[in-house]
């Protein structure tokens, strides 16, 4: 059975009118709400004070949604899309996903990468930190081939033994090479990754 968030009562006025338009579970930008209030900053302050909204960052708000287990956190993708002013062209993932590639990585990461075309830097949105990185190209969804290449791109940033991971990738390369993987290298590999791959490909050519 779902429970509703407990809110302090609002007196009739523009803040109450604004609250009537909020949908639980949605993320809002301040600019999205200006048409609903003639004193939006005052009303937003009231809604935050009464628990109708949670402030995630400057100009970014979340209408909390309750469940039987308590308040639900905002959806990461919706938070990021709102932060990017509605731009849905981004790739959101945890570096922990590299552990699925089979190169011996085991670390778990309490951070989220956001590959996008607009923002760069680490931003705290609500209770989460997002590492925004501007990239010229990235897939719409994670693939094993992309993760293999991106892991090699980010070796120096990982909490792993760099040389061990790189050596395992070199040893496994003959069994992993495929048209899809080579295409991923071409599309997403940085200069260092491309150099490693070229050396490994040269090793496959009979003398």
Characterize the structure shown.
This protein has two domains: 14-74, no CATH class; 77-204, no CATH class. The chain is built from eight helices and nine strands. The protein has helices spanning 14-20, 30-33, 40-49, 76-83, 144-153, 162-176, 179-188, 191-204; strands spanning 27-29, 54-57, 60-62, 65-67, 70-72, 91-93, 112-116, 121-125, 128-134. Strands 6-7-9-8 form a four-stranded mixed beta sheet, covered by helices on one side. Helix 5 packs across helix 7 (179-188). The radius of gyration is 23 Å and the shape is elongated.
Which helices and strands appear, and what pairs or packs with what?
Elements: H1 14-20, E1 27-29, H2 30-33, H3 40-49, E2 54-57, E3 60-62, E4 65-67, E5 70-72, H4 76-83, E6 91-93, E7 112-116, E8 121-125, E9 128-134, H5 144-153, H6 162-176, H7 179-188, H8 191-204
Parallel strand pairs: 7-9
Antiparallel strand pairs: 1-3, 2-3, 4-5, 6-7, 8-9
Helix pairs in contact: 1-3, 5-7
Oligomer: single chain
Strand content: 15-25%
Termini gap:
69 Å
Radius of gyration: 23 Å
Number of strands: 9
Q: What is the element string, with H for helices and E for strands?
A: HEHHEEEEHEEEEHHHH
Indicate the low-confidence ranges by residue numbers. none
Averaged pLDDT: 92
State the domain count: 2
How is the largest sheet built, in terms of strand order?
Answer: 6-7-9-8
Helix share of residues?
Answer: 25-40%
Overall spatial form: elongated
> If helices are DSSP runs of H or I spanning 4 or more residues, what is the number of helices?
8
């Amino acid at each position: 059975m779902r429970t509703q968030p407990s809110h302090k009562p609002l007196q009739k006025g523009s803040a109450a009118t604004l609250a009537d338009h909020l949908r639980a579970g949605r993320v809002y930008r301040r600019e999205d709400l200006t048409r609903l209030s003639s004193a939006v900053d005052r009303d937003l302050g009231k809604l935050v004070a009464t628990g109708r909204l949670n402030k995630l960052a400057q100009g970014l708000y979340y209408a909390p949604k309750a469940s039987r287990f308590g308040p639900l956190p905002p959806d990461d993708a919706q938070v990021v899309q709102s932060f990017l002013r509605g731009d849905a062209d981004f790739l959101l993932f945890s570096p922990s996903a590299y552990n699925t590639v089979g190169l011996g990585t085991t670390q778990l990461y309490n951070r989220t990468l956001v590959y996008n075309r607009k923002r760069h830097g680490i931003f705290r949105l609500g209770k989460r930190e997002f590492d925004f990185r501007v990239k010229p190209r990235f897939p719409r969804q994670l693939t094993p081939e992309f993760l293999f290449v991106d892991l090699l791109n980010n070796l120096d940033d990982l909490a792993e033994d760099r040389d061990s991971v790189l050596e395992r990738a070199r040893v496994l390369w003959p069994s992993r090479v495929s048209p899809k993987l080579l295409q991923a290298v071409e599309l997403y590999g940085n200069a260092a990754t491309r150099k490693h791959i070229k050396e490994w490909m040269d090793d496959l050519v009979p003398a």
